[in-house]
């Protein structure tokens, strides 16, 4: 148990009311009745300056801080003591503004933050013409959410941090959205409109609105006219757990949803609190945004009422990266039923371009950015599969991805887990909205899915690659979505709750600069609507 020693030089001008007096006396009585053995456990006396440092790091508003001082003065004056228990302090904080402060975690964060080089303490940092990139811009300090690093730890090596305490308390110098816990806006606390009991993590239980509301992160930098050929976004993240809680994260860059990053975040199963580095390649569709010298990044989960908390320590943008820590991945894509290799499966590895599996089902990439990596495989006629691995610099990681043959049962499972299904087994004549005969198997599975769940509101979405005119692609994708809807209607599907929409090239899930990436973008999606 920690005790704070307080000794305010000034006295409060405000008279103590009868009700306040009774409450304070009760707090004093509780303290005086503490068992002898418990008192002997009291250690680490903190003077007022140390207490002030702690509370400053919790970002308590000035008016609440002043009221807190007055309340603590009263306790000290009436008790004749210059000390109060941490428990009493926490109660006062919560009473004053719904502030829930874990003082032990805060003390560890403020005082036990080792191995942070001075350059990492800078809240913003930009350098040019470096060994790792033409421009390196960082938003947020590199301090492991305020807890510091183990000796010799390199946050860019791909290793996970040791577990640390929570909540996190951002310093006044921490840029907005870093070093603090955010809870998806879809979760409704008791008393909020739409509240109903739902699953939640420790972050959600220990923090409150509005402090933990998701916040927009605004990266502002100067490219100094350097041409942007490629770009890599590195996020040091904590406790994303969509597969565990059923949350569905979404990320917007300059108010445009980056669906391909959504897909990565929703595959991260990151128990903790543990920090990890996630590297994401900026696909060509977003390069103009990078060139604008400003990226507004917003991460949230607005669609599901689950209490999934998450955090970002820092974000680093690399322009034309060239010598970053990398790892190797060797893998096999196999049929889950037969264990036979699957040829020409499309494999996406976070931070790298999409590749395809060989005749023997193998794939390899020797230049994957180190850190948390999501490896996903897709093939027409199969349910997509994935594995998540921590890639450590200089090491080779071997993975096996087994794909389940597509059935109406696992289509239902995908829809329930992800809220959508990406279908690669629906084919059209080139530049037309005419369904090819080889689409029949997948269409029949979609038909069974709809007939088994007639009350579900579903949207059939058409998507194209970026080749050709964007208006033409939008019209083509809309006609193709309509063609799927018509086929279902012609085959006696209950289409009352079905709709169709064309998205054209606006929601790429891969880089359009390669044929593999374009193939991943040419798809039909079934989306569950609320």
Describe the structure.
By secondary structure, this protein is α+β, with helices and mostly antiparallel strands. Helix content is 27%, strand content 26%. The chain has 14 helices and 24 strands. It has helices at residues 18-32, 36-40, 48-57, 62-79, 86-97, 103-111, 202-206, 242-245, 259-265, 287-291, 408-418, 440-452, 470-490, 515-521, and strands at residues 2-5, 43-46, 83-85, 124-128, 135-139, 182-183, 217-220, 231-238, 250-253, 256-257, 275-281, 294-300, 309-319, 326-335, 346-349, 355-356, 362-369, 371-378, 385-391, 396-403, 420-423, 458-463, 498-504, 523-528. The strands form 6 sheets. Strands 4, 5, 6, 8, 11 and 13 form a 6-stranded antiparallel β-sheet that branches. A 4-stranded antiparallel β-sheet has the order 7-12-9-10. Helix 1 (18-32) crosses helix 4, helix 4 crosses helix 5 and helix 11 (408-418) packs across helix 12 (440-452). The chain is globular and about 80 Å long. The protein starts with a strand and ends with a strand.
Strand and helix layout:
Layout: E1 2-5, H1 18-32, H2 36-40, E2 43-46, H3 48-57, H4 62-79, E3 83-85, H5 86-97, H6 103-111, E4 124-128, E5 135-139, E6 182-183, H7 202-206, E7 217-220, E8 231-238, H8 242-245, E9 250-253, E10 256-257, H9 259-265, E11 275-281, H10 287-291, E12 294-300, E13 309-319, E14 326-335, E15 346-349, E16 355-356, E17 362-369, E18 371-378, E19 385-391, E20 396-403, H11 408-418, E21 420-423, H12 440-452, E22 458-463, H13 470-490, E23 498-504, H14 515-521, E24 523-528
Parallel strand pairs: 1-2, 14-20, 22-23
Antiparallel strand pairs: 1-3, 4-5, 5-13, 6-13, 7-12, 8-11, 8-13, 9-10, 9-12, 14-17, 15-16, 15-18, 18-19, 21-24, 22-24
């Amino acid at each position: 148990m920690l005790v704070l020693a307080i000794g305010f030089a000034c006295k409060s001008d405000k008279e103590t009311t009868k009700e306040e007096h009774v409450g304070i006396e009760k707090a004093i009585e509780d303290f005086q009745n503490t068992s002898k053995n418990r008192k002997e456990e009291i250690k680490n006396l903190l003077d007022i300056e140390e207490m002030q440092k702690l509370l400053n790091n919790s970002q308590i508003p000035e008016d609440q801080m002043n009221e807190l001082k007055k309340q603590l003065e009263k306790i000290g004056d009436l008790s004749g003591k210059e000390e109060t228990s941490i428990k009493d302090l926490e109660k006062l904080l919560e009473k004053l503004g719904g502030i829930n402060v874990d003082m032990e975690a805060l003390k560890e964060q403020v005082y036990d933050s080792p191995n942070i080089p001075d350059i990492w303490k800078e809240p913003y940092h930009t350098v040019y013409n470096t060994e790792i990139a033409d421009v390196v811009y960082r938003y947020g300090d590199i301090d492991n959410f305020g807890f510091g690093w183990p000796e010799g730890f390199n946050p860019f090596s791909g290793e996970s941090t040791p577990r640390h305490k929570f909540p996190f308390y951002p310093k006044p110098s921490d840029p907005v959205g870093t070093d603090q816990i955010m809870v998806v806006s879809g979760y409704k606390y008791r008393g909020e409109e739409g509240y109903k009991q739902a699953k939640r993590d420790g972050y959600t239980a220990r923090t409150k609105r509005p402090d933990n509301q998701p916040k927009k992160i605004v990266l502002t930098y100067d490219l100094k006219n350097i041409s942007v050929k490629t770009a890599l976004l590195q996020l040091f993240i904590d406790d994303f757990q969509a597969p565990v809680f059923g949350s569905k994260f979404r990320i917007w860059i300059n108010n445009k949803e980056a669906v391909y990053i959504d897909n990565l975040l929703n595959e991260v199963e990151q128990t903790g609190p543990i920090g990890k580095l996630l590297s994401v390649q900026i696909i060509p569709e977003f390069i103009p945004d990078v060139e604008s010298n400003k990226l507004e990044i917003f991460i949230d989960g607005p669609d599901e009422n689950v209490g999934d908390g998450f955090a970002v320590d820092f974000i680093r943008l690399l322009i034309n990266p060239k010598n970053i820590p990398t790892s190797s991945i060797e893998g096999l894509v196999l049929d889950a039923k037969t264990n036979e290799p699957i040829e020409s499966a499309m494999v996406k590895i976070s931070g790298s371009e999409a590749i395809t599996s060989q005749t023997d089902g193998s794939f390899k990439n020797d230049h994957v950015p180190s850190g948390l990596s999501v490896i996903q495989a897709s093939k027409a006629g199969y349910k997509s599969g994935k594995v998540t691995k921590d890639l450590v610099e200089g090491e080779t990681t071997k993975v096996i991805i087994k794909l389940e043959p597509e059935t109406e049962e696992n289509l239902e499972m995908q829809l329930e887990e992800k809220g959508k299904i990406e279908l690669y087994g629906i084919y059209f004549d080139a530049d037309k909205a005419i369904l090819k005969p080889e689409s029949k198997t997948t269409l029949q599975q979609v038909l069974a899915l709809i007939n088994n769940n007639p009350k579900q509101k579903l949207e059939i979405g058409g998507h194209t690659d970026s080749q050709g005119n964007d208006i033409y692609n939008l019209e083509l994708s809309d006609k193709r979505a309509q063609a799927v809807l018509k086929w279902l209607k012609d085959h006696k599907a209950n289409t009352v709750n079905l709709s169709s929409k064309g998205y054209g090239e606006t929601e790429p899930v891969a880089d359009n600069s390669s044929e593999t990436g374009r193939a991943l973008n040419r798809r039909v999606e079934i989306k569950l609507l609320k």
